Amino acid sequence: MCLLQKGFIISAPSSGCGKTTITLGLLRALKQRGVPVRSAKSGPDYIDPRFHEAASGAPCVNLDAWAMSSGRIAALAAGDGTLIVEGAMGLFDGAPPDGVGATADLSRLLGLPVVLVVDAARMAQSVAPLVAGFAGHDSAVQIAGVILNRVGSPRHERMLRAALGPLGLPVLGVVPREAGLAHPSRHLGLVQAQERPDLEAFLDGAAATMAGALDLDALTALHASRQTTAESKSLTPPAQRIAIAQDAAFAFAYPHILSDWQAVGAEVTPFSPLADEAAPEADLILLPGGYPELYAGRIANNETFINSIKITSEDTDIYGECGGYIVMGDGLMDADGTRHAMLGLLRLETSFAQRKLHLGYRNLRAVGGPFPGAWAAHEFHYATTIKAKGLPLFEAQDAEGTRLPDMGLREGRACGSFAHLIDQRLPD
Predict the structure, then answer these.
(1) Any catalytic annotation for residue 2?
(2) CATH code assigned at 18
(3) Among 155, 157, 187, 334, which residue is least crowded by beta carbons within 10 Å?
């Protein structure tokens, strides 16, 4: 299927420039106008897409130019209405050694123009060489205009506009400095959408700001410069009946993977360990990542959930990713140093009292478990492994092809690892 995509990418010179707040306010403002709008997030991110969905009322997909084929990306990006893609980090920042997977790659693949968000809080005339450098860096990446963020006053705005004038790039918005637009954050990401009781008020406030600050008509008129071919092979389900934990402690599952499984007939049934629900009858129980360390006491005391897993563990495959993998272990030590007994399916002990960041793309090859073959994956957690005994689940390399220690554990029908699977690596 060939398509000419209507939409654009919101990116920036670096992290922290305000891309997410502007994206959320823009999505909600367009929804309030009745404009058909969809969104996507560049790279491996579980948190921002749920905010996008709350703002727009439409599903949000991940587009990962490191882990996904061009056909997969085009297929996920396809659809009606205006597509707004929120970038990650800086526009040209990707995996080492050469930046593959950057937001700029999505612009090249989909032909989508880029709207550059510049944090202008601490600059005036210097905005011009900064924007000129990004606009001229790669002719295959079209910078369609600039949004000036955190502008302090009308005088500040005039200085910025005067400096940018000779570049000939339109200023598509000027967003004032507002303390009320700040997000609370955890680790490298935001607090989850379901954790903000004031979410609707925040989104409406952001929408009001963006409606007054951005040129919505000019933004929605932006479109791709060329057609792309949307072709993607669905992932083979690991089982026919899949029970998946879904709540605030187990929130990190990629929608495109679940959609693939359902598209070819698999039954995917959610349940909530935090609500002490028993795992439904299934051929595979999937415990995704999330923030189990924040709810460790509740998980440890939820006997209905725990017993349902232990009863089925002898004749049902159980797979955990990152936080789910931690819960499958013998014990979890929280940030205060309190140990909580977990499911005891794997000889694994982890601690958040001793925090260490593990971050990066991973190339994996399964040596067992329900996900055979080669996979593109991502690792991001702060847990320290105190004990890990058992057979490995994956052979691993980093994004540069450097061999890493084997990842994960297998014991009986239970297995898991810290890696989040993104897409299968298919032979060329």
Answers:
(1) no
(2) 3.40.50.300
(3) 155
